[in-house]
Write a structure and sequence with these properties.
Length: 310
């Protein structure tokens, strides 16, 4: 194997630790990050915050559902499940700083800062309260949004998320610490790079994006004390072959009050929060799994029957 092939493989592995922009449908047909408009957006626009031009798109009608993508992705990565999400819900997609159609800016990446930005955008769009579905990096932002702006989040679905950097397998953590601009040249042959340059306001920012996200991933964090601050009911969703250690999944659920005792015959002791582990799913395909929608929507709907268009 050539040195270039080895470096390319390493770059792919590093980037994959925080999500790729490359997805595959159930038949295995490759879609480059679903970076084209898979469904006509009812409304799109931009909102400027702290030197960053945030891009948003809104689909469908009904109770608002904010959907937040993973690292190195964009809202379009949810294209395969968007029709299911919009069948009774208004879906708000926001590309995070430096991702998709949102500019990179000069500000250091910070998940708490991302959350404050999202709260500002929702306010400017006129939303008083939303349900939130966040995946990977987007789940971290959703978590911080619910902690920092508790009245804004009604219900929260966290998909492939951890409350601390200890959540990851050690080898994944080691890879995350190595992500930087040096990988950009080798990633130009990858679908995730092609997905990025297809829609980014400035495609030449890709090396800076890798630096920014690498620096973010390299920082240790522990939000365990903030779990108790969550007012919104939460469902945690993982693949049974996720990048997170199973022990962390259970610890997270226990911090949320789940798994502490038997629920009782009449569910009188059942915690309000939920844990779901989807069989056969990994960190890299769970975000477009049809069963993800059938798992999270009943919870987000709060037991209410939601009809299409309502």
């Amino acid at each position: 194997m050539s040195a270039r092939a080895v470096k390319l493989g390493a770059a792919m592995a590093l980037a994959a630790t925080f999500l790729t922009g490359c997805t595959h449908d159930e038949e295995g047909t490759k879609m480059i990050g679903t970076n084209t408009e898979t469904t006509a957006a009812a409304r799109t626009g931009r909102i400027e915050i702290d030197g960053i031009s945030y891009y948003y798109q809104i689909h469908g009608e009904g109770k608002p559902l904010l959907v937040l993508h993973g690292g190195l992705g964009s809202f379009e990565m949810f294209g395969p499940i968007l029709p299911q999400l919009t069948a009774g819900r208004q879906v708000i997609g926001i590309d995070l700083q430096g991702h998709g159609r949102t500019t990179l800016g000069a500000r250091e990446f910070s998940i708490p800062a991302f959350a404050d930005d999202i709260a500002t955008i929702l306010s400017e769009l006129g939303y008083d309260q939303v349900d939130v579905l966040g995946y990977s990096l987007g789940a971290g932002v959703g978590f911080r949004l619910a902690v920092q702006h508790p009245d804004l989040v009604r219900r929260l679905a966290l998909v492939s998320a951890g409350y601390s950097s200890d959540a990851f397998y050690p080898e994944i953590r080691a890879q995350q610490r190595q992500v930087n601009a040096a990988a950009a040249e080798f990633m130009k042959e990858t679908p995730m790079y092609q997905s990025y340059v297809a829609i980014a306001p400035n495609p030449n920012d890709f090396p800076r994006l890798l630096d920014a996200i690498g620096q973010l991933m390299a920082r240790d964090f522990d939000w365990s004390a903030d779990v108790a601050k969550l007012k919104a009911p939460v469902i945690l969703v993982y693949g049974d072959s996720d990048m997170y250690r199973p022990e962390h999944m259970i610890d997270f659920y226990r911090l949320l009050g789940g798994g502490l005792r038997d629920a009782g015959w009449m569910k009188e002791h059942q915690a309000p929060n939920r844990l779901a582990i989807l069989p056969g799913r990994t960190h890299y395909d769970i975000f477009m799994a049809p069963e993800l929608v059938s798992t999270v929507l009943p919870f987000l709907n709060g037991g209410e029957a939601v009809q299409p268009g309502r």
